[in-house]
Amino acid sequence: MSEHNDNAQPEGERTPVRIDLQQLLEAVQAHGQKTVDQQDEAAKDGQYDDAILDSSAIAPTDDEGNPVPVTIPIVLAPGVTVVYTTRLGGVSEGDFAHFNLGAKGGDLPERVRRNREALANELHARISLVNQVHSATPVDLDDLYEENAAYGFNASGMRVPGDPVEVDAVDRVSDDGTIQVIDADAQVTTRTGIALGVFAADCLPVLLADPEAGVTAAAHAGRKGLVDGVIDATVDMMVDKGAQRGRIVATLGPAICGDCYEVGDEIADAFDAVFPGTFTLTRFGGPGIDINKAALIALAKAGVDADRVFSSQPRVNAATQYLSHDAELEELCREDNEGDPALAERLGHIRHSMCTLENPLWFSHRRAQLAQKPHEGRMLALIVRR
Ligand SMILES: [Zn+2]
């Protein structure tokens, strides 16, 4: 898939290693449900499931040249799956290489469309996207969802080629009537087969479900959204739709960690006043904040039990380890100028695999900034009920 051959290895040595979706799902199910603390301990001890580390070479594109996304699926509850996309397995190039799903950063719309369609195909689900504005506003997707794109529902405020221009069910359209926009930072639904998507490249995706009531939700929880109460508002809407707080399970997606998210004294103090104990001293030496910790505090306040917040880290650790010899990831690290060019070195320096800045599997706005890049791609964290 690469046109960059300067450092190409001989053909025979390029053996892309891919996560086998089914194996990963089975391994996750076998892993059972552990709390965040238990899973983190297990991960520290290197207790990965061997089943998913079995390597198998799968081409990054299919016979027609369509992208084959590398995603990390996690079973959150019976019938409810969370999926994290990575930078791998798409057709975007340059700063957006390879699996960029955001259309606002300057990537070619046609490539974004192809990536999104490939993702919908892989998920066997429709994808729903809204326009994230760092608000605390959730939307009831049951009222709003309408097929308007080849991959599902696009109300994210951008148009990609091939999207129809039907505009009935959305609350705002562009002046020329062609772009559908719903400003919101969380989606809630009782429908099955619809993957609620959160764009992210440092901000925190929070995925929630009450599997008994059949209610799922996805929230975009950046610094501002957390302070303004996006998690509380999302849980409230879930309850309005039949969920019970004590039954809700949740997990936190990839996001910049407290060791890396430097924000300055004033912002860190203000954030810590809302979420006590989230003030950090970053590895860059300045004051920072821990938005993951803040989200856990917000979830507890919203009535989501700590022992029902499951860690995604063991699965992401395993996926990262699994991809440690991936040819595509090696190529990205060589070319992205966002840290050590050697994949083994990059991975060796990771302290938190969920951290977008540290782990080259993820897009990171801050990491791109540090590399003096004008833009970067966006991943999606999704939740879907079957
Ligand atoms: Zn970090």
Automatic annotation (TrEMBL):
CDD domains: YfiH. It comes from the Bacteria. The keyword Nucleotide-binding does not apply. It holds the Pfam family Cu-oxidase_4. Keywords: Copper, Hydrolase, Metal-binding, Transferase, Zinc. GO terms for molecular function: copper ion binding; hydrolase activity; S-methyl-5-thioadenosine phosphorylase activity. SUPFAM superfamilies: CNF1/YfiH-like putative cysteine hydrolases. It catalyses: S-methyl-5'-thioadenosine + phosphate = 5-(methylsulfanyl)-alpha-D-ribose 1-phosphate + adenine; adenosine + phosphate = alpha-D-ribose 1-phosphate + adenine; adenosine + H2O + H(+) = inosine + NH4(+); inosine + phosphate = alpha-D-ribose 1-phosphate + hypoxanthine. Belongs to the purine nucleoside phosphorylase YfiH/LACC1 family. Purine nucleoside enzyme that catalyzes the phosphorolysis of adenosine and inosine nucleosides, yielding D-ribose 1-phosphate and the respective free bases, adenine and hypoxanthine. Also catalyzes the phosphorolysis of S-methyl-5'-thioadenosine into adenine and S-methyl-5-thio-alpha-D-ribose 1-phosphate. Also has adenosine deaminase activity. This is Multicopper polyphenol oxidase. It comes from Bifidobacterium cuniculi.
